[in-house]
Amino acid sequence: MEPIGIFYGSTYGMTEKAAGKIKTAFGRAKVDLYNLATASVEDMKKYRNLIFGTSAWGIGEMQDDWERIIDGLTEIDFSERRLALFGLGDQKEYPESFVDGLGTLYCRLPDKSCVVGDWPIGGYDFYFSLANKDGKFVGLVLDDHNQKELSDGRIKKWVAALKKEFI
Ligand SMILES: Cc1cc2nc3c(=O)[nH]c(=O)nc-3n(C[C@H](O)[C@H](O)[C@H](O)COP(=O)(O)O)c2cc1C
Fold first, then answer.
1. CATH code for the domain in which residue 16 is found
2. For the whole model, what pTM was predicted?
3. Which of 16, 17, 35, 88 to mutate to test the pocket of ligand 1 (most atoms within 8 A of CB)?
């Protein structure tokens, strides 16, 4: 497999921690981690396999660092790439905007044809999520506030699926 770049925005470190676990789940593949607080679109261009992660902040909001970089994604030619998304949220406190950051990240991608790694919606308890597209989440959804014990298994399963999709 070609190298993988994981880019994440994380305010309290929960998405950062999940990104580290995703890297570990890829085993011997080369995986580089980038916190968007310091990373750039130029860093993303180095990878044909990309993973983007964000937490959720209110109705429709991505983690702040994504706001800074999202419009620059038009500089990347996604046609020769694979992109998978993951999002963290809190379904108990924010059931009407659960993992909305993930949904907004997907919506604002300039090219969605490269997106792989959707995720079943079952097993979560919420009213509404922008990340719900046609009955599936647009990427892996983790809730370390309420379902921490499920996260490792979810990551393992998702990464196994990505190994078949990535270049
Ligand atoms: C002020 C505030 C607003 C939030 N809004 C949402 C939300 O609308 N939907 C959601 O699923 N989670 C929401 N969350 C939960 C965060 O997304 C969650 O705590 C996440 O794990 C934080 O990850 P991070 O530390 O990587 O930023 C909110 C948290 C705070 C403190």
1. 3.40.50.360
2. 0.98
3. 88
